Amino acid sequence: MPIVSEDFGRSVINLNVNDAFFVDTNFIIATIDQGDGRHEACYHFLSFLLKNNTKLFICETVLTEAMHALGRMIYIENEIVINYPNFLSLDPQERRKIKSKIKSNFGNLPKQSATLPKLAHANEKANEMLKGLVELSIISIIPTNKEILEKAMNLSHETPLLSSDSIILATALSAEVKGLISLDGDMTNAPINIYTTQTTNDEFDEEIYL
Length: 210
Hints:
- Helix 1 (25-32) packs across helix 2 and helix 3 (60-83) crosses helix 4.
- The chain has one domain: 3-Layer(aba) Sandwich (Rossmann fold), CATH 3.40.50.
- The radius of gyration is 18 Å and the shape is globular.
- 30% of the residues are buried.
- By secondary structure, it is of the alpha/beta class.
- The protein is built from seven helices and five strands; from the N terminus they run E-H-H-E-H-H-H-E-H-H-E-E.
- It has a five-stranded parallel sheet.
């Protein structure tokens, strides 16, 4: 199915009483991370959905990816503050190199006892960011079962998709939702309606949701 023509950062999506959506990892990250280029559109769209009591779903894969991505983001920010006090004065290319270097180190943190406290701190902060979504049941978690795994395996080569995306899509299809809210171009060929935005923070006008 194609990407839905309405950009939720530019126009309000029409909702019916029983509409439900599945939420992709990138949408959650953009909603939480104020530094994300599409934060404003995602944050206000989520607020709009919650205001209208719209059912929202994720799966364990989405939660795991979100924990990892937020933890890595926090680790990168902390390392920059500690080791690169002049970071903002550097040219953009040099800043990208530094971020890339720090990012590549994140996966090695569990392998060295000296860096375990950094991993613990990053994960703790990431979990705090996600706690509201989980504890307040703002978004319901659909457990992965045998049927979903079998569907995901088929989707991984039929669509095709990366393994994590195939599990996300299989779970979304099992929930029979109105669509998948995603900023991920990898889902373009998925057999589900994709709700997305290309609206940047500078372009977003919050009055559309007032």
